[in-house]
Design goal:
Shape: globular
Strand content: 5-15%
Radius of gyration: 19 Å
Strand order of the largest sheet: 2-7-1-8-9-10
Structural class: alpha/beta
Number of strands: 10
Number of helices: 10
CATH topology: Rossmann fold
Order of helices and strands: HHEHEHHEEEEEHHHEHHEE
Distance between the termini: 27 Å
Largest sheet: 6 strands, mixed
Number of domains: 1
Oligomer: single chain
Length: 308
């Protein structure tokens, strides 16, 4: 560990400063994530002829995107090109979600659940990255959560070479669909009051069982950042919203889609069913699990007994 610490100390210090992270994150990065980067480096080096796909699962606020960026920085320093993608960047625009709300169920107006992403674009983007020949420019979609719309293509990230590793992070990455019996009863007031007939949750479950599984089947390695429980997720998601609001304020933007406490409590209920399902089932599927405590620190690490 001391060799790794010395090698990446400056990189981690700079990363923590740039991301305005607490000092404790640097300690956790050294202890838990540098060994992960070394493991990924070994696997990438052993499979020189193809691009690997790493999935990161974690409830809202667990630090998925931060870990993705850290791994990309560390592996990039080793000369291993890494592309970090978020399932969030493949959200459908408001106009298409409005159409779903009118034709299927009003709750599909809100982004987040399976069925509100452009899965065809996600599959095509990963396929292009894996087969990149170097003679084309690949655009990586970017979604503006503060405006609740995809960014203009001029703001999308450009990739000009085949990466050695693709990281796909998201709150339900690797999650399998529920059984019919599991979705019969509502689990919160949102489902009870606004989906009493179960149309919304059945549609979401059907979508999850479709193209999302084609996406997840491509994962070479699945990692989970496991929250203590669902109750903790709301507090972490609230912090994310506050950071987003502050970022928009500093940029001189209004951020029309930034939520207040009441809206956020309603919004988080959209995610409750699959978040609870993921917390229960993904540990049985993941290659490794980082258990988080309520202070957002890593408490322990587990290797799954089920290998992909």
């Amino acid at each position: 560990m001391s060799d790794l610490h010395t090698k990446y100390q400056q990189l981690i210090d700079e990363f923590v400063a740039e991301q305005a992270l607490p000092e404790a994150y640097g300690a956790d990065a050294e202890r838990w994530f540098l060994p992960l980067a070394e493991k990924l480096k070994e696997r990438i080096s052993a499979e020189k002829d193809r691009t690997l796909l790493l999935g990161i699962n974690g409830a809202q606020g667990t630090g998925k995107s931060t870990l993705s960026q850290l791994l990309a920085s560390v592996l990039g320093a080793e000369g291993l090109d890494t592309v970090a993608l978020s399932i969030d960047d493949f959200y459908l625009p408001v106009s298409e979600r409005k159409s779903l709300a009118e034709s299927v169920h009003p709750l599909l107006r809100s982004r987040g659940v399976p069925g509100t992403h452009d899965t065809a674009l996600a599959l095509a983007t990963i396929d292009k990255l894996k087969s990149h020949s170097g003679d084309q420019e690949i655009l990586l979609p970017q979604f503006d959560k503060a405006e609740d719309e995809p960014r203009e293509k001029s703001e999308w990230i450009r990739v000009n070479s085949r990466p050695r590793l693709i990281i796909l992070e998201g709150w339900f990455i690797g999650t399998q669909a529920q059984s019919e019996s599991q979705i019969v009863e509502p689990i919160n007031t949102l489902e009870a009051d606004r989906d009493d007939d179960g149309i919304w949750r059945r549609y979401v479950n059907k979508e999850l069982a479709g193209d999302y599984q084609l996406l997840f089947d491509q994962l070479d390695y699945l990692l989970m950042l496991k929250a203590p429980d669902f109750e903790q997720v709301y507090q972490w998601r609230q912090k994310q919203e506050h950071k987003l609001a502050e970022k928009q304020r500093l940029a001189g933007k209004e951020g029309k889609a930034i939520m207040g406490e009441k809206d956020l409590r309603d919004f988080i209920q959209h995610f409750e069913r699959l978040t609870r399902h993921s917390l229960e089932t993904v540990p049985k599927l993941a290659d490794c699990i980082y258990l988080l405590n309520k202070d957002h620190r890593i408490e322990s690490y587990e290797d799954s007994t089920v290998k992909r």
